[in-house]
Automatic annotation (TrEMBL):
NCBIfam families for the chain: small_GTP
Protein family per UniProt: Belongs to the small GTPase superfamily. Rab family.
Membrane-related topology note: Lipid-anchor
GO molecular function per UniProt: GTP binding; GTPase activity
Function: The small GTPases Rab are key regulators of intracellular membrane trafficking, from the formation of transport vesicles to their fusion with membranes. Rabs cycle between an inactive GDP-bound form and an active GTP-bound form that is able to recruit to membranes different set of downstream effectors directly responsible for vesicle formation, movement, tethering and fusion. RAB25 regulates epithelial cell differentiation, proliferation and survival, thereby playing key roles in tumorigenesis.
Protein name, as recorded: Ras-related protein Rab-25
Localization annotation: Cell projection, Pseudopodium membrane; Endomembrane system
UniProt keyword Mitochondrion present: no
Length: 176
């Protein structure tokens, strides 16, 4: 492959979950290896892209972030349309954000379809002293709903690259 922006596949992936769980920072970490620790809401981009290579293929991930409209539960069908994967994010220190994962999942299934590959992401794993959702509880939910599961920290970078790479590979293998 000659040009660096050439790719074999383009996968749309959406970030969903309650406001404040760290969606925008997960994308910022993946896209620019940066973190925004401020209390002010991250000014999100509409989407960011990154191309990864494995098995001699180049996959361009187009990762969509909400612009804060999730606070009003006003994420539109256009946001979900055509997405092949979703990172369903909760905050391990906020049990309500975990309980709401079920609602996010049904909305996703409604608009993106049953084939959209979903990974449950427990973010803020660096805040282990404030943990309110055990990994066992999250794992049980993910297995019942046939999702993969990972814990991440956008702050200290733990598993962020792994989460994105894993869902991209899952989508790729499902397509074959
Ligand atoms: P969003 O509303 O889901 O997009 O969440 P943001 O990315 O805007 O993050 C909300 C708040 O949580 C911000 O104050 C971030 O600095 C903070 N935050 C995000 N990810 C992490 C993380 O992994 N660890 C910690 N300690 N804080 C985080
Ligand atoms: Mg955000």
């Amino acid at each position: 492959m000659s040009a660096t922006d050439d790719y074999d596949y383009l996968f749309k992936i959406v970030l969903i979950g309650d406001s404040g769980v760290g969606k925008s920072n997960l994308l910022l970490r993946f896209h620019k290896n940066e973190f925004n620790g401020g209390q002010r809401e991250t000014i999100g981009v509409e989407f960011a892209t990154k191309t990864i290579e494995f098995d001699n293929v180049h996959v361009k991930a187009q990762v969509w972030d909400t612009a804060g409209q999730e606070r009003y539960r006003a994420v539109t069908s256009a946001f979900y349309r055509g997405s092949l994967g979703a990172l369903l994010v909760y905050d391990i220190t906020r049990h309500d954000s975990f309980r709401n994962a079920e609602r996010w999942l049904s909305e996703l299934r409604e608009y993106a379809g049953e084939d959209c590959i979903v990974m449950l992401v427990g973010n803020k794993s660096d805040l282990r002293h404030l943990r309110a959702v055990s990994a066992e509880e999250a794992k049980a939910f993910s297995e019942n709903s046939r999702l993969s599961f990972i814990e991440t920290s956008a702050k200290d970078s733990t598993n962020v690259e792994t989460a994105f790479t894993r869902i991209i590979k899952e989508i790729y293998h499902r397509r074959k």
